[in-house]
Amino acid sequence: MNNEPNKGHIRLYRKATESDLAGCDLKVWGMFSYLLLRVNWRAKKCRGEWVYPGSLITSIHNLSDAVGESQKVVRRVIAELQKHGILKSENWANRGTKLTICNWGTYQTVPCMDGLTKGTTTGATKGRAKGTQLNKLRNKERKNVVSPHKPPQKSFKTWSEEELRTEVENANHDNILTAEEVDDFVGYWRECDENGKTLIQKQKSWDTRRRMLNAIKCVYSKRRQQPSPSPSGNLFLDA
Predict the structure, then answer these.
(1) For the chain, give me the number of helices (H) and strands (E)?
(2) Pairwise CA distance, residues 59 & 65, whole Å
(3) What is the pTM (predicted TM-score) of this model?
(4) What is the average pLDDT score of the chain?
């Protein structure tokens, strides 16, 4: 982030009133404006990994505290921005959420890539070099090139409840589960047996999205049709 937060500016174009944002409520507009101000304006390293302009490492909890809204409202607003293709949300190294404003570089000025781009040329040549370097770095990130600074992937069997919840929230980007169902889903897989081992630790493999879809098929679709609570028991099938 900028070390001089009182300097600089962002660009908010009038044509935004003609986009999908025009039909959104003020909470969505407020979150969009807040993220424009908060995302990185230049590339910087965070815990050994590059985070590029237009992106921000945060969490639902931190955003909730920052904007003074409940986590439920923050999730709804982020889902709304994702639905309109304005924002991209993804899990970041099992340690938080990475939010990226789509097409950020199209509407904002891309500054010097400190620590990444070297050169003394000026004017248009320098601008083209910066843009080219930025595109190369983003393409490298999309291909998931392993960085020597990147920590080893953490096994799902060692996830804490918070880490499991983060995985579920990221996989629930299109709100296939309600907030109550997310709590129920996380609580189920964190249940312990007589030996203190959680259900998720007993699984040989794990795909969060497939487990959620299976839970909808086997459990939540029936609950949605029948308001009365279903009998307790193991209703989740292995994906």
Answers:
(1) 9, 5
(2) 10
(3) 0.43
(4) 79
Q: How far apart are CA 155 and CA 202, in angstroms?
A: 12
Q: Provide the edge-to-edge strand list for the sheet that holds 97-101.
A: 55-58, 97-101, 87-91
Cα separation of 177 and 188, whole Å?
14
Report how far residue 112's alpha carbon sits from residue 118's, in angstroms, rounded to the nearest whole number: 9
Instruction: Give the type of residue at 229.
Output: P
The structure tokens listed for 107 are 């509407």
In sign, the C-alpha dihedral spanning 51, 26, 78, 179 is: positive
For the chain, the straight-line distance linking the first and the last C-alpha, in angstroms and rounded, comes to: 41
Take residue 116 and report the two structure tokens written for it: 């990444």
Cα 204 to its chain centre, rounded Å, is 26
List pLDDT tens digits, range 155-201.
998 899 999 999 999 999 999 999 999 999 999 999 998 888 899 99
Do the strands 97-101 and 44-46 form a parallel or antiparallel pair, or are they unpaired?
unpaired
Contact 195, 201 (CB under 8 A): no
